[in-house]
Amino acid sequence: MTDEAVEFSATQQDAGDGKPGATATFPYDRMTVERFREAFPKARWREDLGAWFVPGTRAEQRLTKWMGREWSGVLAYADQRGRDAFTFEPITSPYLELADELLVRTPYSRTVIAALREVPWARWDPALKVWRVPFRSFEALSRRWPAIETAARLAEPEERRKREESRRATPAHADRRAEAAERRRNRYPVPEDAPPPLNRVLMTHMGCMVFDAVTGELAEPATVARFYPGVAAGTATLIWASGRRPSHAELVQAWPARTQPAPAELARGWWQPTIEVLREERRKAASLERARETRRARRGVASSSEQSS
Question: Which of 239, 190, 242 is nearest to 218 (CA)?
Answer without folding.
Answer: 239
